[in-house]
User: Fold these one by one.
Assistant:
Number 1:
Amino acid sequence: MQSFGFPGFDSYSHQGFRETHSQGFTDQSFFEPAPLLEQPGQSYAENLELPLEHLEDCPLARIERYIANWMAEESLSQATSDHPSQSSSSLIAQASSSQAVRNARVYQIMLVAHELVLEGRKATQRDIWYRLQHTTMFGSSTDVNNAIRDAANALELAREDLNIICSSRGALAGQLLLQSGPQHAWIDCTSQTYAIPGDCSALSSFSFQTTACCIVIVEKDAIFQRLAEDHFFDMVPSILLTAKGMPDMATRAAAHAICSAFPHLPVVSIVDWNPSGATIAGVYKWGCNHNHLHGARFALPHLQWFGLRSSMLEYAPEDSFLPMSSRDLALVRNLRLGQMQHEPSWLDELDMMESSGVKAEIEALYSVTGLQGFSVMLADCLLSFLAYDAL
């Protein structure tokens, strides 16, 4: 099993590890109980009474092997050093390479994950940041999030296998009935916006019903709220979804679950007419590059870039546009080298931005339609788009 540059964890087994090293973070009220485990102290595999070979490869066993290996390697390093360190913090102070810092951060995340899985509890990434921000090795929430990603990659697991869940920003509205579990009431998303849960694994118990003819993914919360308030989903029977910007894992998981439940429905995106908007549409379509193991896990390969398109801005006044920045131009070049090179119509939009030297946000349509006509225009354009696509 590959360890991706971190201390190896597949060759070392530490008997009695659980009894010796299960006391790391003791404030259990800080973490949310995980309903999947019937008894604290059991791993998922143990709770399900799986065969021994499965127990040896369950998340808890992988975490324990990693921690045991890390400790063994550090003990060896200290034994050969004239100035052995006494703690992870002193290791950071003496570290001369960024890899050493990265490894120590991952080790701390492994300790947190070990407690979570062992005790049958869950925590969000934000919870963990608040817990670790007083330490010297984590300078920002980004450091924590990167270490969580590295830990999951090192173990070849998804972060929810470590009982670490996302702080979701996502929301749903439109022609969708959803039930979060067999004993739960059905929720009508035409009458209320539904906040997407941060626990990706919880979506496996969801059930969906719809009369929609398409799924619309919206970049911005303000546009999502505008469309929901105008009952856009009645003009074009549709399911609306937003992550309020760059999609988090939980929102991507929800989009994937809905698209999988209704594979016959076309999926379209409404994003800014700029390189960042194209990037966001691309993350939904192909996944993210920074997670090489699970980046494409919730990809939506059939997603189409419906808007904003240059053709929709034909009558927009000049002051509706913004100049392309050097960052925008660099992003265009990078996008052309990725998956987008296989989407001619997407490349056409990037070429138009680059050649014109301008970009526009979705709100630029207000200058053409006014506030009242915004949703009507988008609905007309979407109906034409879907009709053309069906030919």
Note: The radius of gyration is 24 Å.
Number 2:
Amino acid sequence: MLYYIGLSLAWLDYFLGVVTCPGIVPTVLTVLWKGQTKTAAIVSQILGMMTGFAVWLGATKALYGVVNVTTSGSQLSCMYGVIASFVSPAIYTVAISLIKPASFDWNKLFEVELITDDLNAEEIEANKRAQMLSPAMIKKMKKMSKFASFAGVAMFVGVWIIWPYAMYGSRYVFSKKISSLSPFFTGWIVVCIIYAFFTFFLVTFYPLWDGRHQLKIIVLGLLGKKSPTRGIPQEHVHAGQEPMFLEPLDTETKGITATGKDK
């Protein structure tokens, strides 16, 4: 369909870049900056998208004198549009948040309650205690949050800034036909294949290993067997709290306490 209306996949890719990039910075600040307001997170993305389209079409008009499918699909004008749609929301969301500052209380995330119509008071209280995080777990989460932030910034600077601008400045053309550039091209392809397989195995199998204890609890629960939390790493166990046994609830017998003993 795109072919018959004169659009190519390259043009669609550039278009999606302008549309999706405005959501990156506000989304990141949603989990990393408590000062971002709800209004700023929403409005900044809309303004960022409008800015990206304005810069994209404006750059196309300035560079080529006319705006059509061919000229708007040029790499240079699209690059300007994507950069504008990515950077401008960062300015908008900070400015709007500072107009009417807010400070989000992260502890509210721990107040989310499950719908437990068929549980008694003691079972509800046991579930609340099970959802709490120990100091060790909170410390670990803060450490991993800092690591994720650093890794995200490093990946962005390397993949979005250093590498593209270096390749653009060198006027390098990806082609195996040029004998002097053939080793680099071949090495690039090999690295891409290795990276793709590494990412596949990491994303597919590591979450299963990391959540093996929780998966064990779920499987044993489905099989109707008890599963003590002493098999879970210590950061998940709260100080001064006895290990709880998870077992399926009997709709006819409600006398199961948090320790797995009958009343």
Note: The first helix runs from residue 9 to 20.
